[in-house]
Amino acid sequence: MMTGGDRLLLPANMEPSAQDWMSALPEELWDVPLSSLALPGSHDAMSYCLDINSPLVPSEPDTFRLLDGLLSCLTRPLIFKWTTTQDKSIEEQLSMGIRYFDLRIAHKPNDSSSDLYFTHIIYTHLTALDALLSVASWLHSHPKEIVILACSHFEGINDQLHQAFIFTLKKLFGSKLCPRTESDLTLRSLWSSGYQVILSYDSETALSHQELWPAIPYWWANQRTAKGVISYLEFEKDLGRPDGFFVSGLNLTADRSYIIKNPKQSLRTLTFSNWESLRKWLEDQHPGSSPRSLNIIAGDFLGPLPLCSLVIALNQKLLKKNSIK
């Protein structure tokens, strides 16, 4: 495990500027609210380390759980290739420029320990604590980069586990945690205060903790095609953007009927085959505060697909305006 002083050794083809893209933005953007900048996001960020042999989460339907118990040799490969949304570690995602992380926290059934994991139908190898230690270490080496950690789902987590996890989060990130009472969320103000982490915690348990933010809206199309995703996102844009942070999800979703009928496909092949249409739509988007502007844009397979660079580049559009709203 890395210590606070360690620096990541990056592949030769990884651009150093992506690691510190926030601090490299033109000074004209330092006073723009973070919710008006374009921020790359990782959907189901920890699914790169799913454990194919772990139990199913208890919320899965009983019929599916029974089938998995009887025919795991068939169900597990399907589960694995349709629940894996990322193939880069959290440190690599940070260094590629990802600044929003969709973190689905859970406690394994019948686990006597207090260890928490991440989940997407099945559980991860890596514990939540180990992953977040890596985030804290990375931030120590990149003091002007700001991340948004969106913790949600919390399957199998009771109040005692919530409180213990929140205590761990507060101890781990300490003074880097930006309280929800902070009103001036710009790069300049966050840098001057030493804040690097906006921690969203989608549970009523968080209400008594000023260091934790409420759930961040996520526009999820629940569609299998780029056309369906784009149509949904355009509909949401017509209704107007929420106040504050919000996520536009470019991630595709296939139902179980489609998965069964297309055994040679995977979420990866589906994402890649639809990418060109998603890319063209993404390049036409604008950050900012106007009703149809976007903020966080999240997707899948962010290593091989250039979503990060495309989203970061959208911020240049703010410079072309005579005044930044």
Description:
A hairpin with a 1-residue loop joins strand 3 and strand 4. The protein is built from twelve helices and ten strands. The protein is of the alpha/beta class and 325 residues long. Strands 1, 2, 3, 4, 5, 6, 7, 8, 9 and 10 form a ten-stranded mixed β-sheet that branches. The protein starts with 15 loop residues before the first helix and ends in a 6-residue tail after the last helix. Helix 2 packs across helix 3, helix 5 (128-141) runs parallel beside helix 6 and helix 8 packs across helix 10.
Name the structural class.
Answer: alpha/beta
Give the tally of β-strands.
Answer: 10
Could you tell me the mean pLDDT?
A: 93
Q: Give the percentage of residues in beta strands.
A: 5-15%
Termini distance? Answer: 43 Å
Largest sheet: 10 strands, mixed
Radius of gyration, taken over Cα atoms and rounded to an integer in Å: 19 Å
Helicity range: 25-40%
Based on CA inertia axes, which overall geometry fits? globular
Low-confidence stretches: 1-16
The number of distinct helices, counting runs of at least 4 residues, comes to 12
H-E string: HEHHHEEEHEHHEEEHEHHEHH
